[in-house]
Each structure stands twice: as C-alpha cells, then as structure tokens.
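Subgroup meeting minutes
Present: P.N., E.W., G.H.
Scribe: E.W.

1. P.N. recapped why we're keeping a running log of single-chain structure predictions: easier to compare across weeks, and new members can see raw inputs and outputs side by side.
2. G.H. added today's entry (260 aa).
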Amino acid sequence: MERRRIVRVLAMSGAGLWTQQRFRAAPLLQAQDASRPELLPLFPLDLVLLPHTNLPLHIFEPRYKEMIGDCLRNGWEFGMLAVHDQSVTAFGCTASITKVLERFPDGRMNIIVRGQRRFEISELNDQKSYLRGTPEFFDDDPAELPSSDLLERSMALYSRLKELAKIETQVIQDVPRSTDTQLSYRLIAGVPGELTWLQHLLELRSERKRLELVADYLEELIEEFESAPNKQRAPSQRIAAVTFSSRGLRPSRPSRGSLP
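Output recorded in log:
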C-alpha cells in the first residue's frame, strides 16, 4: 500500500496529546456506556483513534472544554474523526474518558481516553458550540477471522519489535494477547503510522485482512530498524513518522494547529 505522506502522530488540533504520564492524578472512570446521547459529540483531530487504543489528550479550546465537561457530567462517549487535507472523514471511533489526570483553574484538562466503537456519521448538527452527529455503528464481518498461523506470526513480530525498539506512545497501551478480539488494533496501538493507512485500518471490517496489513507493517519496521540499529537517520518514506536512535523508535515532534 502506497503511503503518500508522513503524519506527525502527536499533532494537535483543538486539543493536544499529553505525553507526560502522571497516572496518580485521578481515579479510573467507568467507560461511558451507561448513557448514550442521540447525537454524538464530535472531536475532529489530525490523527486516527483506533478501538482498544489509549490516548492522552490536553483539552484547552473552549468548545472542547465544554464538550468534555458535558461528557463527564452525563457519562457520554464522544466521537473522534480524522482531519486530512482540510476535510473531515465520516468514519470515526468513539472515545470513553477513562482518566482525568489534571484539571487547571482555567478549565483546561489532561485526560486519557480509550477507543471503543466504530461509526459512520450520517447527519451533522451544529446547534452547540461543538459539532455533533448522528452515528451509525458497525462491527467486523464475523466470517473474516484470522488463521492461527497469522495470529502466531503477528504476535512474534510484535514481540520482536518490542525487543528492538522503545516506542514512547506504547507505554500506556494494554499488553496484547493472541486470544484478544480485534488483535490487529491492539498490536498497532501506540505504534506511529501514516494517517490514511490508519484510517483504512479503522474502516476495514475484516480482522483477517487488517491483521495481515498490521503484520506486514510491523515486519517492515523491524527490517528498517535491524538494518541500522545504531544510526540516527530519517526513516524511509514507506515507514511511519518515527526516528531511529540508540534509544529506539519514537514519534516525531508534535506540532500545533487549529481545527477548520
């Protein structure tokens, strides 16, 4: 699959990724599934949230401080949609707020969210300060299951990458197991990737095809790293936004932006 551009995986737009892991701040919140609004609050960002992925966010824009406040008060999920080339995709993933790490006097927050359910937005609503939409949820094709050989290969590649490289954004991810549902998402959680490729993974409804893509990508990362383990150099254009150094793999430097 041709990867046409390299995404900065810690890019920020409207809210920012918060990479300092201060987990002692607030107790774990229950996943927001008890009360689901008819209109899903929407949060466009220039990144892709995948199911089973934990993501740190720094909330600072007024409309999103209001949105997160509404979600916390009502136990709601919110939907994250990827922004690419100044357009917002209709396919996204809901996020449940699992930790409030820090609150500031001006209303800013550092939070951890977790990817939950995939959806397609069929209709938008702009009656509040933040965007909302009508979601249509979808799941995988139950007939498209990976083979045991593919499961074994994928887990072996993941273990090898962990031996070779330190990926800073994997610190807060769950440890994947071969028996996990949607293993593909769990293996790629926290691993930097090009935005359009990750969006393709999000929309795919075949776990078999998705896991094949993830395994091939992990293999490519391993080969790139093994070819120059002690050299600091820019990755090839076929590799995601990671840098190679004696410490291992790490995401590109974050940049700032604003939502359209």
